[in-house]
C-alpha cells in the first residue's frame, strides 16, 4: 500500500512573508515551468514553516508596495505527512480543493497532494478493497487461468459450505414455513435490509480505522449503535406498513395479514440492529486479531447476517403464529 509521502508533488512555489508582491511575481515568472503547480502559492516563515496560502490570482491583482503577509490567507486546510491516505483524500474532497499542502509535525512544507492524484489513489484503494471483498487479493491479470482458479476455488468451496448453514436454518423451520407460506414473500426484503445496514456500518468502521488507528472503540460503537437504533426503527415501521399493504392488495384471501406484518416489522427492527452492530464490531475484532479489516466486507459478513436474520424471523413466526 502506498504511503502519503510517496505520492506528493514537489513542484510547488514558495514565497516569503515579507516579500513585496512585485518581487514575488518575478519569482513566479522566473522559477515556474510547465510542471510547476502555480494555482496556489505557499508562504513560509524564516524557519521554513508554512504560515499562509494565496492564489495566483490574488498575487496578480495585488499592487506594490504591498507585502505577501498582507494578502495571504493564514487560515487554510492542510494534512500532516503522517496522516493516512484516506484522510488526505477526504480532506481534498470535503473542501473541494484542487490541491492541498502537506506538512510535517513541525509544520514544515513537505509537498502537495493534488486532486488528480487523490482521485487516482481513491480509484486504487477502491479496486484493492474490491479485490479483498471478492477474495481476490494478490490478483495478477498476467497469471495463467489455472493459477487464478487455484486462488478462487478454495473461497468458492468455503462459501458453498457456509451457504449450507442457511439451508439448515430453513430446514429447522420447515413446519413454520409450510404452515404460513406468506413468510417466504418477505424473506428477501429482510435479508437485503440487514445486509445493507451492515455494509454501511462496515464501510464507516473501516474508514474510521484507517483515519484514526488510535480511536476510542467504546465511543465509536455507542455512536454506531445509536445510529443503528434510529435507522432500524424507521425501516421497521416502513417494512411493517409495506408488508401489510402488500398482503391486503395481492393476498386478499389469506388470513393473518396483521400478525405476519408485525413479525416482519419486529424482525427488521432486530435484524437491522444486529446488522449495524456486527458491521461495526467484526472489523474491530479482526483488527484486534491483526487481520486486515477489509476482508470483513466479503461474503462472511453476508452469510453471518443472513443466518442471524433468518433465525430471528422464523423464531418470531414460530412463537407468534404456530
Outline of this structure?
This protein has 11 helices and 6 strands.
Number of helices: 11
By helix and strand content, what is the structural category? mainly alpha
Spans of at least 5 consecutive residues whose pLDDT stays below 50 are none
Strand order of the largest sheet: 1-2-3
Rounded to the nearest angstrom, the distance between the terminal CA atoms is 55 Å
**CATH fold title of the largest domain:** Tetracycline Repressor, domain 2
Order of helices and strands: EHEEHHEHEEHHHHHHH
**Over all CA atoms, what is the radius of gyration?**
28 Å
The fraction of residues assigned to DSSP E strands is 5-15%
CATH-defined superfamily of the largest domain:
SLC41 divalent cation transporters, integral membrane domain
Relative helix content: 55-70%
Structure commentary:
- This protein has 322 residues and is mainly alpha-helical.
- It has two domains: 111 residues, CBS-domain (Roll); 157 residues, SLC41 divalent cation transporters, integral membrane domain (Tetracycline Repressor, domain 2).
- The chain has eleven helices and six strands.
- Helix 1 links the parallel strand 1 and strand 2.
- Helix 8 packs parallel to helix 10.
- The longest helix is centred in the last third of the chain and has 34 residues.
- 27% of the residues are buried.
